């Protein structure tokens, strides 16, 4: 099943000027646990899709809110010349089709 079919929220935003964070939120514990079991796979897919090493991809699962947070370094510091998404809000689309 793809993330876009299991997560109720998939979004990205800045986590400071040098990082982008992705929030994955799930409607219930079963969907969250499915994602939690796939954290290693999610990490490797994010690394592949965004051109990062797996060591650069941080994944944190947070059971009280049925959520997973993923953080990666930005290629260009937010607001610097060449930055096409100063808020980091348009970076999540690559996550939609990750299979878990």
From TrEMBL:
Domain DUF4387: 3-99
Source organism per UniProt: Agaricicola taiwanensis
Name assigned to this protein: Acyl-CoA synthetase
Domain of life: Bacteria
Any Pfam family matching the protein: DUF4387
């Amino acid at each position: 099943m793809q993330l876009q079919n299991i997560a109720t929220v998939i979004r990205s935003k800045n986590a400071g000027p040098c990082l982008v964070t992705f929030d994955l939120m799930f409607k219930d514990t079963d969907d969250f646990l499915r994602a939690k079991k796939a954290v290693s796979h999610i990490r490797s897919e994010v690394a592949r899709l965004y051109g990062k090493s797996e060591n650069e991809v941080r994944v944190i699962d947070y059971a009280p809110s049925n959520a997973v947070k993923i953080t990666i370094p930005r290629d260009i510091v937010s607001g610097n010349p060449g930055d096409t998404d100063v808020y980091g809000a348009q970076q999540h689309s690559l996550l939609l089709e990750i299979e878990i």
